[in-house]
Design brief:
The protein has 545 residues and is α/β, with parallel strands linked by helices. The protein folds into four domains: 4-91 and 142-253, 3-Layer(aba) Sandwich (Rossmann fold), CATH 3.40.50.300; 105-136, no CATH class; 258-310; 335-544, P-loop containing nucleotide triphosphate hydrolases (Rossmann fold, 3-Layer(aba) Sandwich). Helix content is 43%, strand content 22%. It contains 19 helices and 18 strands. The protein has helices at 44-51, 85-89, 94-110, 113-116, 119-138, 144-154, 171-185, 201-213, 225-231, 250-292, 295-310, 376-384, 418-425, 430-438, 444-447, 456-470, 486-498, 510-516, 535-544, and strands at residues 4-15, 18-29, 33-37, 59-64, 70-73, 189-193, 217-221, 234-239, 242-247, 335-345, 351-361, 365-369, 391-396, 402-405, 474-478, 502-506, 519-524, 527-532. The strands form four sheets. The chain has a six-stranded mixed β-sheet, sandwiched between helices. A hairpin with a 5-residue loop joins strand 10 and strand 11. Helix 13 packs parallel to helix 16 (456-470). The two termini are 45 Å apart.
Length: 545
């Protein structure tokens, strides 16, 4: 039987007087790699903090096996300024620094004539030094620096990045530094909150390798279904205040979840028929008892009522509410977009692209991929202003209207309320605008609050809402799945499948690319390379070459 390292028993948590969840129970076993999934706002990060002991329990208990160690990677990690990448990584085990300082202090004392000429004092200092050395060895001090450097390399941060100041690192690189620190600590339980956010595809593949080789237990919150397929041995679904554990990866979970829901719905319908039959019998016996005044009929009615009361009720299957996304599109020019020998250089002389050539036809869905920093987002923004291209020609079909989704969400005015932003986008009455925003899961209070109050996922939904109102037939989408939960991503995938128009999308979400695109264009070393099919076809071709 597998070793139980942690047991969450009937826990509840309240934040600012609001119940986040209650009655959650969960058994975690050694060696498991668990993907924690569920809609945004259900409390996944809160549960992770609870497991890490960073939040108080309102109810219930958490059992942790003796000697269990854990480390948590935050969703948006912050690193101290004034350090290099290597210096920050070396702070992974704070106790070690204190032990090293103690050893230095004791060694200085042993070199002091007042100490080494006093046998009693020298004996005490040497005893303290011996204990400090034992602690230093226990913390693997002699190998610590090499262990940290090895951890940096394992997560994909090579020596070229070690002397970069932390404030110059990208969001993805900061996550990798924090992950390297956890690798150096080697806790028996890794708690990772969206570790793949801001990472490009090569970095995600590197992360998958690291997690698959990790000897401890891993709990990972992620919206990247491809990563969950590659890494997870179990999926824990947190929804409607309940946690359900499924064996297998994400694909196995979706299949098993649908089968369970189908069985539950069948049991519910069968039980409802039985309940209706019993209730009809009770009504019949009560009617006879009232007419004949027969005690036997009264007893029969009571007996069946007790039968109903004792029955374990099967719950009706209910779906979590999803946003409504209606990007219908319309037929425009057959040749939607054309790039001819397009090039661009940065002010420092570095050439981003040279002689880019691409044709996008009506109805096509094209995925634009490539490492971070090659200029994918800049190219998409250039398509919004084709006349200003410094080299080559960009042509947009005359009957095409562009809808642009920005990765950094700069299409939103953060000072506006949601209501104002939507009514600036399209001439809607206040009532119609409110009803429209409700379809994107915004509450009454959110609609009248400034956009800067929204979370990343909520701002993403607002951008999609604006896209609907602009009625485009050419979509330029820059990382549209970032910050969205899986349910919203699935709605977006279905919508793009039915969209009448063309789509050019930048994404590091490999599962999304497999679902949506029929051609992949890779931008690397300033040039385009085209591949037929989705991400899996592209990956298979590039690995063979």
């Amino acid at each position: 039987m597998a070793e139980i390292i942690m047991n969450v028993d009937n826990v509840a948590v309240n934040l600012a007087g609001r119940v986040i969840f209650q009655g959650i129970s969960w058994e975690v076993q050694a060696g498991q790699r668990i993907g924690l999934v569920g809609p945004n706002g259900v409390g996944k990060s809160t549960l992770m903090k609870l497991i890490a002991g960073e939040l108080p329990l309102a109810d219930g208990s958490i059992f942790r096996a003796p000697g269990l160690t854990w480390g948590r990677l935050e969703q948006e990690p912050t690193l101290a300024d004034g350090r290099t990448t290597l210096q920050e990584a070396m702070t992974a085990v704070p106790n070690l620094t204190a032990v090293e300082e103690k050893l230095t202090h004791l060694e200085a004392q042993m070199a002091d004539p007042a100490v080494y000429n006093d046998p009693d004092r020298l004996e005490k200092v040497m005893a303290q030094h011996g204990r400090a050395l034992d602690e230093y060895d226990r913390l693997d001090g002699p190998r610590y620096e090499s262990r940290v450097k090895e951890a940096l390399q394992r997560v994909g941060l090579e020596q070229a990045h070690w002397h970069t100041p932390t404030h110059l690192l990208s969001g993805g690189q900061k996550k990798l530094v924090q992950l390297a620190k956890l690798m150096a600590q080697q806790p028996s339980l890794l708690l990772l909150d969206e570790p793949d956010n801001h990472l490009d595809v090569p970095a995600k593949e590197h992360l998958e390798k690291v997690l698959n080789q990790y000897t401890g237990c891993v709990i990972i919150i992620s919206h990247d279904r491809y990563l969950l397929d590659e890494v997870a041995t179990h999926i824990a679904e947190l929804e409607n205040g309940r946690l359900t554990l499924y064996p297998g990866n994400y694909t196995a979970y979706t299949t098993e979840r649908e089968l369970r829901r189908l069985r539950q719905q069948q049991l519910y319908q069968a039980q409802q028929k039985e309940i209706a039959r019993i209730e009809a019998a009770i009504a019949r016996f009560e009617l006879w008892a009232s007419i004949v005044v027969d005690e036997r009929h009264i007893r029969q009615a009571r007996s069946r009522q007790k039968m109903l009361d004792r029955m374990d009720k099967v719950e009706k299957v209910t779906d979590a509410r999803r946003m409504t996304l209606n990007l219908t599109g319309w037929r425009g020019s057959n040749k939607v977009l054309e790039l001819e020998n397009v090039g661009m250089a940065l002010p420092d002389g570095r050439r981003l692209w040279r002689s880019l050539n691409l044709t996008l036809w009506h109805g096509e869905r094209v995925g634009l991929v490539g490492p971070n920093g090659v200029g994918k987002s800049m190219l998409l923004r250039q398509l919004l202003d084709p006349e200003s291209v410094p080299q080559g020609v960009i042509k947009i079909g005359p009957s095409n209207k562009i809808g642009y989704y920005a990765q950094e969400q700069e299409t939103l005015n953060y000072d506006n309320t949601l209501l104002t932003e939507i009514r600036h986008t399209a001439p809607l009455s206040e009532g119609d605008a409110v009803a429209f925003l409700h379809k994107f899961l915004f509450t009454y209070n959110q609609i009248r609050a400034p956009i800067h109050n929204l979370s990343g996922g909520e701002r993403s939904r607002l951008q999609l809402a604006k896209l609907v109102l602009t009625r485009p037939n050419l979509l330029l989408l820059d990382e549209p799945t970032n910050n969205l939960d899986i349910a919203s991503i699935e709605v977006l995938e279905q919508t793009l499948d039915e969209f009448v128009g063309a789509v050019l999308v930048i994404s590091h979400d490999r599962y999304f690319l497999d679902k949506v695109v029929d051609r992949v264009v890779e931008l690397q070393d300033g040039r385009f390379t085209e591949y037929t099919g989705g991400y899996t076809d592209y990956a298979a071709t590039t690995r063979e070459s």
